[in-house]
Write a structure and sequence with these properties.
The protein has 162 residues and is an alpha+beta fold. It has a single domain (2-161), classed as Peptide methionine sulfoxide reductase (Metal Binding Protein, Guanine Nucleotide Exchange Factor, Chain A), CATH 2.170.150. The chain is 19% helix and 23% strand. It contains 3 helices and 9 strands; from the N terminus they run αααβββββββββ. It has helices at residues 2-15, 41-47, 50-58, and strands at 77-80, 86-89, 93-94, 102-103, 112-117, 124-129, 135-140, 150-153, 158-161. The strands form 2 sheets. A 6-stranded antiparallel β-sheet has the order 3-4-8-7-6-5. Strands 2-1-9 form a 3-stranded antiparallel β-sheet, with no helix packed on it.
Length: 162
Amino acid sequence: MKNIVYLLIALTFIACKGESQNNQTNIKSKSTMNNKVVKTDEEWKKVLSPEQFDVLRKKGTEMPYSGKYFLHKEKGVYTCAACGEELFKSDTKFDAGCGWPSFSDVLDSSKVVYTKDKTAGMVRTEITCASCGGHLGHVFDDGPAPTGLRYCINSVSIEFKK
C-alpha cells in the first residue's frame, strides 16, 4: 500500500510541472538560526498528531488535495506546526494546481534549510524548518514571478495565524 502511495505522489509531482525538478540553481540556503528546538521522537509524539509526526519528523507526505490549507485564502502568516516559527505570508500563496499549498517565497530565507532530495525516483530540493528540522515539503523553480519559485508544502506541516 505504501508503494502505491509513493507512486501516486510521484505521478502527481510529474504532472505538476515536474520538468523543473532538476534545475534548482536559483535556490540558496542561508540557515543562520541559533535557537534550535531539539526533542526526542518520544517528545515530538507528545506534541504532534500521528500525521504531523509522520510528515514533520519522518519526512512523509500527505495525499494531494487533502490538506486543510490547500484552498485556504485567509490573510495572515503560516507557521511551522512543530515549533511555531513564522515561515510564509499569505500574500505569497498561490494555486499551483499540484494538490498542496504553494507559496512563491519564504518569509525569511534563514528560516528554512534546503537539502538535495533523491528519494521517490526524483531529484528535488527538500525544505525543512531551520528552527526544529521539521520536514515542510519541497521547492521547485517553476513558480510565478518575481521569485520563480514554488514552495510545495504539506498542510500538516504548517499552522495559520490571522
